[in-house]
Design goal:
The chain is of the alpha/beta class. About 30% of the residues lie in helices and about 30% in strands. The strands form 4 sheets. It has a 5-stranded parallel sheet, with helices on both faces. A 5-stranded antiparallel sheet has the order 10-9-8-12-11.
């Protein structure tokens, strides 16, 4: 999970960022601030992985705020002014979102954070099911069911629960979809819809907005997730 904060003084922009963050299961919003001074106080006592930072802010300019941080987290700049892009990248920001930006463009920026996170030592001690684990135990009711990770076809969200499908069984898990997007290897498992994660190794074909798995199982591709999914699986952009 990527803990993030928003520093933005305009309520409409705040609402858009909050909605976009809520729609990305790997993001967790832990704070929203209308100026940098309030955010600085929060950062003194709270660990944050990512900041969505506006540039034109009251009290302190967003770029000046960023320069004031001795060990800044990753930053995505959000602004209506293109002339600050070069200075932003000189400060090693992850991306520069020019308002108004689409959800797809937002996802592209967030995906850069996810890739960098894998090699960042700040995240090295977090628990994960990635890479070295070949089997997992899924708590289902009073049971713990062992599943081979490669045997998972797809995972479907059902409110606060998830259904894990293999070729021979369906397991109801008490974990939400966010748990699986955070802990399963993102190179093998990809969220393709707000309610679906697929195992890329199990894909038979992709036709239009549908993914076909074995036994003609079909999983929809959400419009907001399609470009990112295809870039990972097919290497397209």
């Amino acid at each position: 999970m990527i803990n993030c904060i928003i520093i933005e003084d305009q309520p409409p922009a705040q609402r858009i960022l909050k909605k976009f963050i809520e729609d990305v299961s790997s993001l967790k919003l832990v704070g929203l601030f209308s100026d940098g001074i309030l955010a600085l106080e929060f950062l003194k006592n709270n660990a944050v992985d990512l900041i969505f930072l506006d540039i034109h802010l009251p009290k302190i300019n967003g770029l000046d705020f960023l320069k004031s941080l001795s060990n800044p987290p990753q930053v995505i700049l959000t602004t209506a002014f293109s002339e600050y892009a070069l200075e932003g990248y000189e400060l090693n920001v992850v991306d520069y979102l020019l308002k108004p930006f689409s959800f797809q463009r937002f996802l592209q920026a967030v995906n850069k954070v996810s890739v960098k996170k894998e090699t960042d030592t700040r995240f090295s001690n977090r628990e994960s099911l990635r890479e070295t684990t070949t089997e997992i135990y899924v708590k289902s009711g009073h049971d713990h069911v062992k599943i081979k990770i490669d045997a998972i076809l797809y995972i479907h969200s059902d409110s606060d629960y998830t259904e894990i499908f293999t070729s021979g069984q369906k397991i109801l898990s008490q974990e939400p979809l966010k748990y699986w997007t955070t802990n399963l290897d993102e190179l093998q498992f990809c969220q393709v819809h707000k309610s679906y994660i697929v195992n890329n190794k199990q894909i038979v074909k992709i036709t239009g907005n549908l993914i076909y798995l074995e036994n003609q199982i079909k999983v929809p591709i959400g419009r907001a997730y399609k470009e990112l999914f295809l870039s990972r699986v097919l290497g397209t952009k």
